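FAQ
Q: What does a multi-component entry look like?
A: The components come first, one per line:
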Amino acid sequence: MTALTQLALLFGKLSLVAVGGVNAAVPEIARQVVAQRHWLSPAQFVQLYAISNAAPGPNVMISTVIGQHVAGVAGGIVATLAMILPAGLVAILVSRYFARHESARWRRVVQAALLPVTAGLVLAAGWVLTAQSVSGWLTGAIALGCAGLSWRGRLHPLWLLGGGALLGLLLL
Amino acid sequence: MPPRPPSALSHKALFLAFFEAGIFGFGGVLPIARRVLVERRRWLSQSEFNELFSLCQTLPGANMVNFAFAYGARQRGAGGAVAAVLGIMAAPMALVMLFGGLYARYGGLAPVRHALAGLAAAAAGLMLGAGVKIAAPVLRSVRHAALVAVVLALVALAHWPLVLAMLAVLPVSLLLAWRAAR
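Then the predicted structure of the entire assembly, as tokens:
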């Protein structure tokens, strides 16, 4: 199988199981591209994730940077399309046929059911990324500091990302 | 202010609105998309926006990209969906691939490596913070806290595939939510 086919299949499947959004799928993406396919080392994965985070736009960009890393610009485009198309078609169909008022009740139920699941998945994503990015006291302090500041503070995430990069540059 | 119902949004108008949301959407597209579509363009009321967004949130995939698909299709069919999605994706994709290209070329240099290590730790921290923020209100109920813990353990510690973890947890979670709603 060519790299492009593999990317299309992997992210196409991820698109439909990414319950709770792309952030919730980050542990699965890491498992697939780091542990199973060895396309990236753990450090590369978390660095590419960080790069996709520093750019504007929807967080599907994690698929763009991974696709690009594996198979160049074409890989970035294929991975992104595979990540957005299946879920997007589902969104079109569901919003067309089920978005009327009678669906409000089941939607509330599904939303309430997804909340603890999404919380667990995003915490797992934080766990996986932290385990892959913390290599000493400084990176540990940056991760914990940013976690605390983004939880309780009102600073824009770009300040935290920029601060982390600057600290790494000056002190590592 | 009452929303101005868009009788026929052109493909160009859809593209431009979502382009604005994409290129200025640092650290999340939701706030800027709300500002562009609800406050500035007044294409949707606040509650219409929330309704469509919450629907997109309950579906798999990227929430705001799903929103662009659904809203674009609602306005202009398949062509509208393409226009909105191209709009929200074009600039961020070009930028992130530029970053990716620079990473491939210069990622090995020592100063770049150090800055990237700091950046990566910060991004990991942001994800942890986001997780705590989502989890904090859920943890008040013992059952929900147990679900959060099970998901975390299955995915982060036991490294279960996402599909298996979902098959194990979602039915329980749905049952709890369904009983609570009755």
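Q: Is there any commentary attached?
A: Sometimes. For this entry: The radius of gyration of chain A is 18 Å.
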